[in-house]
């Protein structure tokens, strides 16, 4: 923790030494950020630019913070709200997610998997990082920023004691060199000691980023370095330590969590994933005159065509080390047959280039939509163990896709986009992806009503590690796996003033690929259908609030794809302002609940979730998890205090994953502070 703090202080001092007085006007609208209506005035032809910034009091300047994400394929900008809201702040660090959708192993930073099927992503090419998706940041999820003043956010979460507690430290810093260029860094470190034996986690995520938003040239650069270290315990030896503790202690004092025996000792999973991502474009267009707010004529640049290049290089490796294994836990031994130990490793690297030409929307009144054509090439290399534990098997795959996008992003009433790509060379032949979405927004009385439609059709080859993997306990080479064919349709309806949101979806999958009860990839050659509906409805009466979310889903094959029928989240709280209305306060309790089902188990040697063994299967669910909390928001500071799992000891099936108990009652604290100087 001291090392991370030192790095933050060093970066902050170096950055602010030369740029402390930066305050200039930033691009002020989504249109400018997206290359529409971009004016030369933003490049510095105003009176404010000629002021002496050393004589300006930074506390009197409106910081005007903007944040956005970029599309990984084409680098398109999507503006997002700055993360300053204090509603649900108390849940931001929960592994189960803000509304409790994820199953996980109990400890902070442990692997997780959403119970809501439509929130799950396909297996990535390096699928060992997928269970850490709540901590690992993909390029399209990273938040770039632009502000008049240097912007810093410090966030700290703490719970439990020095023996069993959890801590997380986050630092985000961004500063502008001028109106067009910004750079910064992001640090995220978490450490979970764990209530149960052999359960600790230690993760580090560090990023350096920069952006340049000129009229003609734009670029985003991101470097991300992600480390995970997790001690594996295989779960507790007997669930009755949780479900029937008096019977296990023979009527004596209950077992403390740290004294409950677990299946593994001296076992670790380590992952390291780093990537460099660059997306840049050059715009061609023309200048035209327009009147500004002062009725003065000025020139603005109107982009017509963009030449786009995006490149991503990723390198990852995994190590699984076990010095003392349970002899009955794994069925097979392929390498180290003379000892109860494993030392598995694999590595992956890839480089992907995408080239595109875009005809932009909005350069005249007839250009109501944008049209983009692109071609991409990705080469991936994998290294797997051989049975002599010394030799390495190398695999190389190439994919070449060609595709296009038609989109309309401007205006208020209607937006849409349709994207398609088809494989044309090497391993990509026969694969394709089609995706479309549309949103319609209109006024109804004094409210805004939104309809959203989404659809995808894809025919893709299962990820490499589902086809090939070599280790001490698992060994497969599945060259005969068929392509997965998926068709999905979704609809969404929302009314802003009523705080109503309804999502419905249906999906059909052919050749569904999954980890079976032996933790080995398998395909179901038939069709599986999933239907889903999620209703969010919030109510308010004065200072009393009640937020509700009800999720329903049904699968046509619960043996291969088990899902709970219902997942519920309810949040009852009081919200008001005190201290001359500058301090916002929330006091409340929330509960998450899901119906019983045969949830997937977790297998340490593959670092993923798989189906349960039918002969040993257990149901989880039917157990509410209740938290009490207080949220405070004072100017640029957010604070919360929470009593987590307050109903612990009430009896019941308190597991998110079979054999991995939910943490017992624990007090949590968190603070987030924004600085603009």
Layout of strands and helices, then pairs:
Elements: H1 2-19, H2 30-33, E1 38-39, E2 66-70, E3 77-80, E4 102-104, E5 112-114, E6 144-146, E7 151-159, E8 166-176, E9 181-192, E10 201-213, E11 217-231, H3 240-243, H4 245-248, E12 265-291, E13 297-324, E14 342-359, E15 370-385, E16 392-408, E17 414-426, E18 432-444, E19 447-460, H5 464-467, E20 468-470, E21 475-477, E22 484-495, E23 500-515, E24 521-541, E25 544-555, E26 566-578, E27 583-594, E28 601-603, E29 608-610, E30 625-634, E31 637-644, E32 655-657, E33 660-661, E34 666-676
Antiparallel strand pairs: 1-13, 2-3, 2-6, 4-5, 7-8, 7-34, 8-9, 9-10, 10-11, 11-12, 12-13, 13-14, 14-15, 15-16, 16-17, 17-18, 18-19, 19-22, 20-21, 22-23, 23-24, 24-25, 25-26, 26-27, 27-30, 28-29, 30-31, 31-34, 32-33
Helical percentage: under 10%
Strand-pairing-aware structural class: mainly beta
Please give the number of β-strands.
34
Low-confidence stretches: 1-33, 35-61
Head-to-tail CA distance between termini: 25 Å
Radius of gyration over all CA atoms, rounded: 26 Å
Mean pLDDT: 89
Q: Assess the beta-strand content as a share of residues.
A: over 45%
Number of discrete helical segments: 5
Assign an overall shape. globular
* Largest β sheet strand count, sense and barrel closure: 22 strands, antiparallel, barrel
